[in-house]
Amino acid sequence: MPAIHPITPSVARDPSIHSSHANAPTVLRTQGLEVTYDNGTRALLPTSLEFAQGEFIVLLGASGAGKSTLLRSLNGLIRPGAGQVIATGTGDLSDPAHLRNHRRKTGMIFQQHHLIGRLSVLANVLTGRLGYHSLLATLAPWSRAEKESALAALDRVGLLDRALDRADQLSGGQQQRVGVARALVQEPRVLLADEPVASLDPATAERLLSLLHGICKSDGLTLIVSLHQVEFAKQFADRIVGLHAGSVVFDGAPAALTPERAQSLYGTQSSSSLKQTPHNVINFQPAGALS
Ligand code: ADP
Q1: From the CA of 160, how far away is ligand 1's center (Å)?
Q2: Rounded CA separation 174/288 (Å)
């Protein structure tokens, strides 16, 4: 058995691990990012991560590990207690102007798709354009170009023929694809997806992840998605970031996440006992060191 050493909360990436993205520009990074909720929960300990253009990153970790907190921080929905989120070409998100620009270019996909059921599928997709309109302009009809872009996005997710149906007439998997189309009309640089397949059956979940993977690769989008299923992470991710109790405890290629490491990531012990036992923290090794 390899020696297991505790690691610091922020794990430096070995660039050799991700050869396909080693030279890709960084689009988003966190620097010593910390989040403590009002009730005192330290949801994210100092975390420094870089995300490259075109990279498909899966966040893994047990419930309460901090995945959602990290994703919401990356979109500026949570104000950090310390540290920064920096979008390349935009800047530190603590500046409201930078935050607005970043949000416009960042698509969010949620576990519950947040569609308006009584509106048409097309109208729901068009709401993805709201970030490009002033408050007054949202009262005006959508431009022809925006409608064409929404129809093209629906075509991409295989739902063009359902454009005029009410959103609540679609299945869960189809509604989730509408959520993807809505994110696409934002013309995003980054897509953040918080457990997007948690309420889908395995076959539908795999189809959705395959769709997201195809979009990420063909458009050069950075996709950061939290999942519970290790198998899907290994199937689709370029890189897996494992979180435990608010710390990054694994950051590497899917091949480096052995069954033992995956097991320790989720753990069989309660999180409180894990917190008191630093030797349970997964040892990080570059992928090359394993073969
Ligand atoms: P995950 O997405 O991995 O399940 P979360 O980021 O949702 O983890 O939660 C991380 C920790 O922060 C957990 O202990 C959770 O209970 C806590 N937490 C999440 N949201 C809030 C909140 N709004 N107020 C207080 N604590 C929260």
Answers
A1: 37
A2: 40
Per-residue confidence band for 266, with pLDDT thresholds at 50, 70 and 90: confident
Give the closest residue (by CA) to ligand 1 atom 12.
Answer: 43
User: So what's the pLDDT on residue 2?
Assistant: 33
**How far apart, in whole angstroms, are the C-alpha atoms of residue 183 and residue 219?**
13
pTM of the predicted protein model: 0.83
Distance from Cα 186 to the centre of ligand 1, integer Å? 28
The whole-angstrom separation of Cα 15 and Cα 21 is 8
| Closest-lying ligand 1 atom to the alpha carbon of residue 226 | 2
Ligand 1 centroid to Cα of residue 41, in Å, is 8
171 within ligand 1 shell (Cβ under 6 A) = no
The confidence band for 227, taking pLDDT boundaries of 50, 70 and 90, is: very high
Cα(246) to centroid(ligand 1), Å: 9
Among 32, 193, 44, which Cα is nearest to 106's?
193
Structure tokens at 22: 């080693």
For residue 140, what pLDDT is reported?
Answer: 65
Is residue 228 lining ligand 1, measured as CB closer than 6 Å?
A: no
| Residues 276, 250: Cα–Cα separation, whole Å | 18
Instruction: Give the relative orientation of helices 202-219 and 172-184 as an angle to the nearest 10 degrees.
Output: 10
